[in-house]
Every structure is written in structure tokens, then in C-alpha cells.
Amino acid sequence: MNKLVLLGGGYGNMRVLLRLLPNNLPSDTEIILIDRTPFHSLKTEFYALAAGTSTDKEIRVAFPEHERLHKVFGEVIRIDREEKAVYLEDGRVIEYNDLVIALGCEDKYHGVPGAEEYTYSIQTIANSRSTFEKVCGLPPGSTVAIVGAGLSGIELASELRESRADLKVKLFDRSHRILRDFPEKLSNYVKSWFEKHNVEVIAQSNITRVEPNRLYNHDQVIEADAIVWTAGVQPVKIVRDMEAEKDKFGRPIITQYFNLPDDEHIYVIGDCASSDLPPTAQLAEEQAERVVKVLKTRWSGMALPEKMPEIKLKGFMGSLGKKQGFVHLADTTVTGRIARLMKSGLLWMYKRQNDN
Q: Can you give the residue ranges of the FAD/NAD(P)-binding domain (predicted)?
């Protein structure tokens, strides 16, 4: 029996499962899914879990069931390309014929002293739970500092404001304006929301050091009762350590078929794959769609197309609490209640389509 091993149960490999099961998997092939948790976590909603406005159960989806899908729960510690095997922390060894690596990313601290030791994270569901316990357990009047005003930082700050109106929320933005790479209309809308809801945005910040309950912005010392880091990501360590040609961000370089240039049996998708496009759930799913087509073509013994279709992302959505939001699609910006309903609707559709 040929073994297709999927590392990580995130958006990319969930799409692989959705496309191959129940009827598109060759009869001589089985799938082994390896993940640290027994469910698919909706990473795009971790900010709400950390802020206390969504429950743990609301951001989980069950993995599908199939007689030739075997789920293995554990921590991957090594990929042996020569032996074509994956090693788990508990000593188990899983062999593969084809391997799809979609292990995601972790926080990147940019060499800032103390950042890794003294900040909280929302990169994993476990980290988000810990962040929730910390920020939602703070006494009234406490200060929460959020370092990084990308989409995750913006959504966390707004959701935390809705969850805990008594807290002081400071959002540190390295740029001169929020979402600087997008239309100024969108940037101004988010800025005005924060002003109206008393979230302090500190623009052109440069965090140079973090200490317990204290961070340094340029030469200014700022006290905070909790510090959450949302200022950049990098591939998980196992991928950074993997023997493969990498880009300047430590992500394995892949061909247009999403496999390593020197190994057509190892595919890399999602946040840990080299790409010119921003790392998003949407990108991971589009890459997964193409990997499934490549796998099915190779399994059938047919020739691959000379050129794979280009991935074009549709845009992005963000929330500002449960009532407001923003959407940028096809150079069109929508803000307010309608945008928030659009995001909620997309989340409902996603959970429905993946609910088994």
C-alpha cells in the first residue's frame, strides 16, 4: 500500500483531504495525517480565542473519517529524506511514499532580546489558550501591549477591546500608518475605529528590547501587564532545519508543482513554503488544490502540464470586534457591518464544508 503522509492538519492539508476523500484516492493508496492535536484548528480565529470572545470549541473542526485515512497524533521532530521517514517525539517512525509538509509557522522575534521569553503568542491553539488565560485574567485597568499591527494584531486589539473594555490596549505599528500596503481609505477606517474605541496605536515604533512587564520602543520604556507578539512569522524549526534549498526567510524553495527541486515526492505548502505571495490560509488552500492535481496526475502515470496555473489571491478580510470589519477584494474595499457579515459568512461556509 502506497503511503501519502500529510504533516500538519491546517488549511492546506484539510483541502488535500477534502479533494481526495472519499472517492478520489487510488485503491492502492492510504493517507496518514500527522498532527499534534486531534482536530483541525481555525488559525485565522485564534485572535478571538485569545481575547475571550470565541470558545475553544468554536474554532475547531473534526478531521474527516475514512477507512484509508489514519490519524497519528504527536510532535514531528525530524524528516529523514534518505530513509523516506518521519520521526515523532515519542519514538514512532512513519514511512512515506509521498509527503506533504504543511506544518505552518511560528513567531519571528527579529533578534529582539527578551521577546521570545517575555511575550505571549497566538500562533498555535495552545499558545492562544495561554494568552487568553493571561490577558483575560488581568485586573481592571491593566495594560496590554500588542507588538505588530498586521492583520493578527489589528484583530486581536479590536477583539480584546470588545472583550475587556476596562483594559488599556496599546498597539505598536512599525509603519507610519496601519495596513500601509493597502488603500488609504482602509487604513483610515481602521485608524478611526481604534480612536473611537480608545485603542492607542503607536506608529513608527521599533521594539528594541522586552523585559518582564516592560518593553522598549526606541529609547522609551513602556510598562505593560501583558505583552503579545504578532510582529512576523517564520517556518517552524523542523522545516528550517530540513536539508533543502531555502529562500532568505528559511522557507524551502519549491518547483511550480510544489515539490522540492531534487525530490518530486516531497511537497511543501502553506506558511512554510517559499512564495512571493503573503502567507495566508487562502494561499495554503490554493497550493493544496494544485498539489492534489499533481498527485493524481503522477499516480495515473500521465505527464504533468508544462506550466501550472498562476495563483491569484482574491483579497483578504478582517474583523474589528463582532460588529465591524473590512474586506479588500479585487481592488474594492468594503468596511463596516457588511464587511463583518461577509467574514462571518465565509467562516460559516468553511466550517460547514469541512464538518464531518
A: 3-288
Q: Does residue 87 share a domain with residue 193?
A: no
Asked if residue 290 lies in contact with residue 308, where contact means CB atoms within 8 angstroms, the answer is: yes
What is the identity of the amino acid at 103?
A: L
Cell 500538519 belongs to which residue? 8
Q: Which residue in 143, 147, 135 sits closest to 202, CA to CA?
A: 147
CA torsion, ordered 37, 42, 47, 50, to nearest 10 deg: -30
Amino acid at 272: C
- 96 and 241 fall within a common domain: yes
How sure is the predictor about 356, in pLDDT bands with cuts at 50, 70 and 90? low
From residue 239, how far is each of 84, 256, 258, 274 by CA, in Å? 15, 19, 15, 11
Cα–Cα distance measured from residue 218 to residue 199, given in angstroms and rounded to the nearest whole number: 20
Average pLDDT in the chain: 95
Q: Are 272 and 105 in contact (CB under 8 A)?
A: yes
Residue 129, domain extent: 110-231
Helix (H, G, I), strand (E, B) or coil at 237: helix
C-alpha–C-alpha distance, residues 129 and 134, integer Å = 9
pTM (two decimals): 0.94
The SS3 assignment for 248 reads coil
Contact (CB, 8 A) for 161 and 197: yes
Nearest 5 degrees, angle CA 76-CA 80-CA 84? 105
| Residue 64 DSSP SS3 | coil
Q: Domain check: are 102 and 187 in the same one?
A: no
- Quickly state the pLDDT bin for 100 (edges 50, 70, 90): very high
User: CA–CA separation, 30 vs 233, rounded Å?
Assistant: 33
- Could you read off the pLDDT of 305-335 as tens digits, one per residue? 999 999 998 888 999 999 999 998 888 889 9
- Alpha carbon distance 356, 352 (integer Å): 8
- pLDDT, tens digit, for every residue of 107-118? 999 999 999 999
Q: In what order do the strands lie in the sheet with 315-320?
A: 315-320, 324-329, 332-336
216 plus 283 within the same structural domain: no
Kindly give the interhelix angle for 11-20 and 337-354, rounded to the nearest 10 degrees.
50
Please tell me the total count of domains within the chain.
Answer: 2
